[in-house]
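=== RUN LOG ===
request id: a7f3
mode: sequence -> structure
chains: 1
length: 245
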Amino acid sequence: MANEAHPCPCDIGHKIEYGGMGREVQVEHIKAYVTKPPFNTGKAVIVIQDIFGWQLPNTRYMADMIAGNGYTAVVPDFFVGHEPWDPSRDWSTFPDWLKTRDARKIDREVDAVLRYLKQQCHAQKIGVVGFCWGGVAVHHVMMKYPEFRAGVSVYGIIKDGEDVHSLKNPTLFIFAENDAVIPLEQVSLLTQKLKKHCQVEYQIKTFSGQTHGFVHRKKEDCSPEDKPYVDEARRNLIEWLHKYV
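=== RESULT ===
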């Protein structure tokens, strides 16, 4: 994802080797990866991809982790068959590519996945988690869809001057201190607006020394100084879902 004022796309980080514990299904007009908990809890989470697409093993790993904690997790193809960003491409073309992938124009896909979760998976309580591009999408749906009982936006860019505080339900925002894509000034602005206007529970956590993508794109055996932050962020994500979904 890139800061629209200062384009600086993130790299793919560590693409882990992971096959996934779920399966691919067709959900109306889009494909999706679905992974289920050991037993049905009536709870589900939509996991929204980053710029590298719904098939990125890292994102499926996170979905499986969420499923292991008691949720049906679904990773839909929010690019609707269009190619995700390939890190081997010319980064100068990234801003134009991004214009064709608007994280705030996903309502048709969200509606389809909600129907699938309610009708096919018998979900009664639903949350949403997104990374990078998906973090922006989470912020969008948490301001529009009251049926999402909780959201977790992980390093999602905040647009300047936009209504960013009208959240419908509890939302956790996770950021990295050394994120070249999301300046701390934007995080501070979001904090100020939520503190002044937000009517629901929210939390903003900024992780010391971390960089963009740290929650889902660092190796499991990452450096000793980073691992506690990765583990804490993932634990916070699950705890937020447990508390509100």
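=== NOTES ===
Helices lie at 57-67, 94-99, 107-119, 133-144, 184-197, 227-244.
Confidence is low (pLDDT under 50) at residues 1-8.
=== END ===
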